[in-house]
Amino acid sequence: QAKQSGRNTWREYANELASDVNTRLSLRTDLQKALVNDHFSMHYQPLINGFTGRITSAEALLRWPHSDRGYISPSVFVPIAEESGLIVPLSQWVLHAVCRDKAALNRKIMADFPFIINISPLYFQHPRFVEELTHALATHNLSPQDIQIEITEGVLLERVDHTISKLSTLRELGFSVSVDDFGTGYSSLSYLKDLPVDKIKIDSSFVRQIAGDRKSAAISKAIISLAHHLGLKVVAEGVETEAQYWFLKRHFCDEFQGHLFARAMPMEQLETRLREKGGGETLPMAPESDL
Ligand code: C2E
Ligand code: MG
Ligand code: MG
Ligand code: MG
């Protein structure tokens, strides 16, 4: 209950922030300064294989500790960066920060798991995106298996052919691509059969409702089944409870990401976790009803 109200309060705060014109303008200026002064950092959230309990990969999530306003969610400031064009330098910053961290991790631990980067539709459409991506990898001595890409359905809103050919290029280069927040955008299911991608992430808004709402449960089940029939893997995001995990696991969801297993954490913490647990997480016990 406390969690629920916490979330609503946050939502209201986020909406308020996002809708106030002056706030947006001042955040834009602050973003610009933060870029110049390198005031961002990356956190990493593990993805867990639902069958083995092993951490397969980690999603890189941008953090901006704002000096006056405290923590501001990327779901608030990324859209502001997109509107103002700052998303391009911001994305370049993220790309290098994640490559640097991944290269450091490769040197320390025999970690054969990729870091996943969220690519904003605007940066994805940028003419130099693929070039900058491959250049960043080369600079840090990484291969395309080290970095995976996450896009949202937003990239499909315009220039579908162009998007499909860029995705094909990425896959030919050896990158794995996921569609993030699946089911929340406006793209139609028919695109999915032509999209050269590897994975789909069920949006947390469906996962959150699984236990209480039969429609969300049905949608989640349908997404998993559809994806598997198309030869795609499925990740569930925002998994917070054992009930959600078990529902999804029973319906053959491949990977899990959420507070039930791990929050996004700084690099050092991720390293400790990988070392201590050997990259394995304890999976919840099967509920009585399943035994
Ligand atoms: P996303 O890519 O869908 O990332 C998942 C979000 O869900 C993250 O929020 C993560 O912290 C949160 N999350 C994960 N598990 C749970 C859970 O069990 N419960 C709850 N309540 N939340 C959970 P975050 O870090 O605030 O990021 C929000 C969005 O901002 C991301 O959604 C992504 O769209 C965008 N974003 C974050 N980092 C970047 C970035 O480096 N570049 C771009 N372009 N976008 C980013
Ligand atoms: Mg994501
Ligand atoms: Mg997501
Ligand atoms: Mg999401």
UniProtKB/TrEMBL annotation:
Protein name: Uncharacterized protein
Domain EAL: 24-278
Species, as recorded: Neopusillimonas maritima
Source organism superkingdom: Bacteria
